[in-house]
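Hi L.,

You mentioned the student needs an example of a multi-chain input paired with its predicted structure. This one should do, with 194 residues in total across all chains.
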Amino acid sequence: MIRNTPGGYGRVAIAFHWSMAVLIVFMLVLGLYMHELPQTDPATFRLYQLHKSVGFVVLALAVLRLFWRFLNPAPKLPDTMKPWERLAAHAGHIGLYALMFALPLSGWLMVSASPWNIPTVLFDVLPVPHLPVPEALGQKAEAEATLKTVHALAAYTLVGLLVAHIGAALKHHFIARDETLRRMVSTAPAKSAA
Ligand code: HEM
Ligand code: HEM
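Structure written out for the whole complex:
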């Protein structure tokens, strides 16, 4: 099953979910770690370049994933879920999709605004141009500082949403004992309760 069905996610949605989950968690850890290192060390510079490169991979995957998502509606939520739980699940997923774009885009804008004008070369191979920075954000240094705050706030919001997201997945699996987590892992049809 390549595509989603009303009963479960297809292989493509599952592959997007878990490959991006690994990359995004890696990016959160790397971002928090590199931020604490001495900024003049060449090893720190290489980690920043890696952070930027993987961030662009996340952005490209997010574009493809959203496109696939529009063509493939999500499977039905379990009937046992209360209206507020359905609303929270939908709002949480929209928030996660939004942050998959907001993080790389705010990062890209931040490095574009930097007065140091450091080039971004993905994996030392593919140069990426700087974005035009909106004038409303002020002079370069001021715009960079604002965008740093936006990027960090987006990252902390993502951590909070992920705690709720993973908590909800575990609650579905171990407390409600429904198919929610299993169908994001495998395309095999649900076993009957008998
Ligand atoms: C251990 C970590 C994770 C677990 C256990 C997990 C679990 C799940 C499960 C079970 C679903 C299906 C929900 C449903 O059927 O309605 C889901 C959907 C989703 N997850 Fe995760 N997830 C994890 C990490 C992540 C990460 C890091 C992200 C990205 C920031 C993410 C983004 C999403 C999105 C956007 C959906 C909705 C997919 C769609 O309907 O298109 N998840 N997750
Ligand atoms: C999924 C994508 C991304 C995630 C999850 C992410 C996450 C993070 C985190 C957690 C931090 C540390 C924030 C702090 O504590 O102040 C950080 C910093 C940073 N990120 Fe990202 N990031 C992503 C994409 C990008 C991209 C695409 C770029 C640039 C093209 C970028 C450039 C930077 C830079 C330059 C810093 C250091 C900011 C500083 O010195 O304060 N990030 N990122």
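You could point out the following to them. Strands lie at 120-122, 126-128. The longest helix spans residues 140-176.

Best wishes,
N.
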